[in-house]
Amino acid sequence: MIFHINSYRYTVTMRNLILWCVGLFFVCGLPACSPKTGSSQAVVIRVGERSITAGDVERIVEITSLENGIPKRQVWSSIDSLVDRIVDDALVCQYGRDKGITVTEIELERAIQDIVKDYPEGTFEEILVNRCIDYTEWKRRFREQLLIKKIVEEHTRSLDPVPYHAIKSYYEERKEEFWHPPRAEFMHIVTKTRGEAEAMLARLQGGEDMATLVKEQSSQSGLQGDYVKNWATRDALPPALANIVFSIPVGEASDIIETPYGYHIIEVLKREPKGRKELLEVMGEIENTLLREARERHYSAWLVQLRNDYPVRIDYALLEKIRALREGN
Fold first, then answer.
1. Rounded to the nearest 5 degrees, what angle is found at the Cα of 296, between the Cα atoms of 46 and 155?
2. Alpha-carbon gap, residue 81 to 209, rounded angstroms
3. Tens digits of per-residue pLDDT, 25-42?
4. What is the CATH class of 179-275?
5. What is the pTM (predicted TM-score) of this model?
6. Above 80 in pLDDT, residue 90?
């Protein structure tokens, strides 16, 4: 993937970040597995104090091709877009260094452990080796990407919160986007064994309150949460639960239902046909959308400012010469 690192789109998981940092980067200077020729040392892009050589660009194209499963010729055909992204990241790094923003060793090691823990022992290193990446070099470039993330987050943190009137206006203008299918609100007990479920059902039949039992009941099933009430559509539930949730009388507890997740008891509180979601239901969703759009505008304007603050020089003639040569091969 070609990632453009802006805060409003920064949704890369730590597991994906290993490929992200293996696939990029250029802004630090990236050694290939094979020796560089003299021509590969020619500087193609200069951003502030940073230099990106022809060899770096060719390596970026090679890895972009590998990660996206597309021919290198196709990557070269869109090299201008890739160069823009290289420049953007270099500008952000230069800004961060001038502002004294850093990634501490503790932050770096914690982030690395978040990656390594998701891989079987030894496979993390194998991935790096297979991609011709030295661990020390990878770690240095990984720190760089964490730094970019940190810089962008700090720069956009001062954005004003989204006002209520903006959220309401967005909702009123796009009501057709906020429909829900038939749904039900219910309370849910889940246990690991049938014996535990039978004990819970007996307490319910003895007059105890379902909400109280849900709060006290503990399970490792994966369906148990820190909530009492759930809204769900039929498609969001396992078939066995969906059949009960959308059939039993409202206000009555179900019998015990067995699924691969455990043993369940459900009480339906309310059902609704297909309809429009209320503003209160979607306020968080709308707020996140508007905040993301605000960050996008802010980030784009910031990049324009950075290009004015730091000198950016691109040898388009050399870049075109390399592209023509590679597209012809």
1. 70
2. 61
3. 444 444 333 333 346 789
4. alpha beta
5. 0.60
6. yes
Highest mean pLDDT among 53-62, 66-75, 212-221: 53-62
Q: Are 151 and 96 in contact (CB under 8 A)?
A: yes
Please answer whether residues 36 and 55 qualify as being in contact, where contact means their C-beta atoms are separated by less than 8 angstroms: yes
The residues spanned by each domain of the chain are 7-160+291-328, 179-275
Instruction: Tell me the pairing of strands 179-180 and 183-191.
Output: unpaired
pLDDT digits (tens, 9 = 90+) for 191-214: 888 998 899 999 999 988 888 888
Question: Going by C-beta distance under 8 Å and a sequence separation of 6 or more, which residues neighbour residue 15?
Answer: 115, 118
Instruction: Decide: 108 and 142 in contact? Cβ < 8 Å.
Output: yes
Strands 312-314 and 183-191 come out as unpaired
Per the CATH hierarchy, to which homologous superfamily does domain 7-160+291-328 belong? Porin chaperone SurA, peptide-binding domain (1.10.4030.10)
> Which class for 184: exposed (0-12), middle (13-18), buried (19 or more C-beta within 10 A)?
buried
Burial of 109 (0-12, 13-18, 19+ CB in 10 A): exposed
